[in-house]
Amino acid sequence: MKFLTEHFYIFLSIFFAVCSQLIIKWKMSAFSINNIGDTVIDKFIFAFSMLFNLWIMLSIIFTLLSGLSWMIAMTKFEISYAYPFTILGFVAVMVLSHFLFNESLNFYKVLGTFIIIIGILIVSKGYK
After folding, report:
1. Which structural domain range is residue 105 located in?
2. Whole-prediction pTM
3. Higher per-residue confidence, 43 vs 104
4. Which of 114, 75, 77, 85 is nearest to 14 (CA)?
5. DSSP string covering 7-62, please?
6. pLDDT digit string (tens) for 92-102?
7. Total structural domains in the chain?
8. How many Å is the Cα radius of gyration of the chain?
């Protein structure tokens, strides 16, 4: 429990970042880049128009909150210790995207995830 309370802002930063990415994937999955327009300008116009979507706005707010949480975490930890924890965001996105968006999940992804988690555990043991 002490570990979780000490690392609260790291995990909060990861939580907001993961939520932001999942929202963007959810909202953008309805579009195909091939149907947006032929030119680079068309694609940028489309991307900027999405900034007015309420869900995308929420995603941007979550990204901001992730950054603010990370700033607070940096007052408590060395970056060389805290930064490896951000990899947990990739793990969470991989697992959640499998269940929410039916994205592929195979042995190699699971094995890689396991190795990442072992690495984070090793890093966390080396602190202080």
Report:
1. 2-125
2. 0.85
3. 104
4. 85
5. THHHHHHHHHHHHHHHHHHHHHTT--GGGT-SSHHHHHHHHHHGGGSHHHHHHHHH
6. 999 999 999 99
7. 1
8. 17
